[in-house]
Design brief:
There is one protein chain. With 105 residues, this protein is of the alpha+beta class. It has one domain: YggU-like (Conserved Hypothetical Protein Mth637, Chain: A). The protein is built from two helices and six strands, in the order ββββαββα. Strands 1, 2, 3, 4, 5 and 6 form a six-stranded mixed sheet that branches. The chain is globular. The relative contact order is 0.25.
Length: 105
Amino acid sequence: MSAVAWRIDKECVLVDVRLTPNASRDQVEGLDTLADDRVVLKARVRAVPEKGAANAALIKLLSKTCGLPKSSVSLERGSTARIKTLRLDGDPNAVIRALMEVCGL
């Protein structure tokens, strides 16, 4: 798989994520290709999709994965959808290295 689920936009990294809530553990599972050929980062969180709990858990998971403070990760699109776009503010090179490492690239 040569495509990735992230892109640099100005001074941040935008990441497309397919979120599975109500899972047995919080985990980033790697990359996946959707039916429309978009590549997404697969993530699971224990939180249920009520009152933004799953989104908050996803933000916490990605901030920990990328070594960023939670305030540097925000939801750009898809607050109620399974496919979301998150904005990660920080050194784009360091963020991308962390994402590549967790995906085994």
